[in-house]
Amino acid sequence: MGALICQMKRNHDIGYASLNSQRPEVIRRYEKAFGIRNYQFTIGKVNFIAIDAQTLDGKHGSGYPQENQASQTWNFVKNVSMDDQLYPRVLLTHIPLYRPDSTYCGPYRGSQVINQRILHAAHGQEVVYQNYITKESSKHLLELIKPVLILSGHDHDQCTIAHESTSGSIKEHTVGTVSWQQGNLYPSFMLLSASNFALSNGSSPEEAVLTHLCFLPMQTHIYMWYLSLFVLTLLALLLWPASGLNIWHHCCDLMTSCNIFRGGRKEKNEDDNCEYEMMWDAEGSMHLVKKALSVPMTNLSESGSVERGNAVMRPTAKKHINQDISMDVESVLTIPTRSKSKTKIAIQRVLRTLRMLVVIAAVNLPIYMMLLFKDWID
């Protein structure tokens, strides 16, 4: 089942009456691309009436160039009013109907209420700009079409009001823009459900149409989050160690430390600070007797004599150990040391950061621009 797409005429599409008289090719181009400007269609058991609101306040029948467009719109409205009203009607207009200045627009409006402002060209005839349809045209529309609901735009923000007419109170929803680039930080759209069943006796016509206002995320919060991620990325690139992070090495050190604490303190070796003395008994048997070491270890290491009855280190062994220690010290001393100036390190970090930023921008910037231009085109 195909989707029904309806195009509403906006002032950015065909302008106002003054532009229509000066450049009639604008309307011809629009009708060639999107079809007629005034039409009606039925969804379920609800009839939708779409009108070209920019031409309603043109001085039709007065000999001015814009009278043709205004006459076409009003003739369409009169023809609709003469049709049998089998289903409830919903009026679709880009410019909202007239409302008094400083009218309360409900709790969902985020900006100040815009009052009526209508500008005319020379001699006070052609409309150059208007915020709302005039009071007379609005009253005439309500009496002829008798809608149960009015949907409008143009204001870029939410506004829900009620109009009084001979057929009763009629609610109008001015739907805010769906793009934050139109000056509204809280973009939104409205879901509409049209009844597919005929209304029973005693039912209100308003029950045939249900609406639900849906808000999109606040765009400034999204860009604040982007900015925070950019700052964190920049700091990470600047402060990241030049040799990287050896995570496996740190994990091994942590596990070793945990094992040491889990096993408790290392037991003290009692043989570290003692010596053994050889003693012979009357039968000639030798015994090793452990006794506390009374001479410091430094003296033992420096002494080259071997006493009888003491288990001491041999001079030859000490000679080899001393040679090994001297070789180790020499090897440590001969390791070349690298000294880098702080300025050179800072320059290298900045260059590395710039390279990484170029890579990140090369990946993300084209994606962002495609999404941005797609939003503009839509």
Automatic annotation (TrEMBL):
Keyword Transmembrane on entry: yes
This protein's UniProt keywords: Membrane, Transmembrane, Transmembrane helix
One GO term (biological process): GPI anchor biosynthetic process
GO cellular component: endoplasmic reticulum; membrane
Membrane-crossing residue ranges in chain numbering: 222-240, 354-373
PANTHER family: METALLO PHOSPHOESTERASE RELATED, METALLOPHOSPHOESTERASE, ISOFORM E
Name of the protein in its database record: Calcineurin-like phosphoesterase domain-containing protein
Source organism: Carya illinoinensis (Pecan)
Lineage of source species: Eukaryota, Viridiplantae, Streptophyta, Embryophyta, Tracheophyta
